[in-house]
Amino acid sequence: MSRQRVIKHRVRGMPAQDGAGVKLSRVINQPAFRHKDPFLMLDEFKSDNPYDYIAGFPPHPHRGFCTLSYMLAGHMAHEDSKGNKGEIGPGGLQWMKAARGMIHSEMPKQEDGLMWGFQLWINLPADEKMSDPDYADIPGESVPEVDVEGGSVRVLSGLYEGTEGPVKAPGRQFLYLDYRMDAGSRVTLPQQGQQTRLAYVYSGEVVLDGVTLKAGELVDLDAEAEIEIVVKETSGFLLLAAEPIGEPIAQYGPFVMNTEAELRQAFTDYQNGTLTN
Ligand code: CO
Question: How far is the centre of ligand 1, averaged over its atoms, from the C-alpha of 100 (Å)?
């Protein structure tokens, strides 16, 4: 009897540098895992050596998608071309819908200590790529937490057990959960019908469908399967789920459009200083 594979793909984050030389682990948007519609990129940055993060991400452009930063430890400041300014600390989120164009910077607000967090890129459908940009700072205390047996789940986006996360992505809501689980606990992942379902372990060790996953590993999961996670060591992991957009993806660096011609237009607009008009 053949059995449906629960884990469709398993990948480890790849060491990379971005911004002005920030060391990070590129989990999605690397050769072994390009993207998983609508998730275009997932980076994890984690270091207590200021030389790894102090240069930050000076002003740079985006067009065609949304960025979402989530901090576990440390402080980061955001500024953008629409005049938004904000700072996020542990447990906080920063949501930016770049849409037709944003130039932003993300700079550390600390000179030493641990800096640990994630940046996720979420694609926009064609009819929203040139819409108005939007931005929101969400402090850690505004992120609801749901108690489960053996741990807790922070609801960053979407709906979990009747609790709604603070990230509002009108019309294209996605599920983004942060599980903090004790050693020896078990938890069943929600199954809300979204065809894209990913889990990323950022600390500890868990077993999923008989496969041991350590910190730094991402799995692409079957959308329909009922999945129980057995927590071996005290662990933290992220769950991401969404309905795919199903449109062509043309990407070059910070621009993600549907066609090469639209990418060229984004470059021209950036060079002419009209990207954010
Ligand atoms: Co950016």
Answer: 14
